[in-house]
Specification:
This protein has helices at about 20-35, 55, 70-85; strands spanning about 5-10, 15-20, 45-50, 60-65, 100. The chain is an alpha/beta fold and about 100 residues long. β3, α2 and β4 form a beta-alpha-beta unit.
Amino acid sequence: MRNGPAVASRSGVLATRCSSFDSIAAGALDVLRESNRRVPEDVGVVGFDDSAWALRCRPALSMVRQPADQLGRMAAQRVLAQLRGDDTPGEGTLLETSIVWRDSA
């Protein structure tokens, strides 16, 4: 799926997944409103990032919160390791996330 809002219908239940930024989830709310869909009654929306966008939207967006401090720390550690010439893992690292439930889902 491309980045951006994706709306799917299954058994009469609609859901939208916003895979990039809260601003895209906010845009999905606008498109759904223009399509006469009610959030969360008709469609649940969950974004990814939990920035200030999430609270500015109406309804307030439910979010997957990233551990930004851990992401930054690990990125810096890997860059420093590469600069030292150390072997660095080629695969990604899985970090724990949390869901912040608000009014959109």
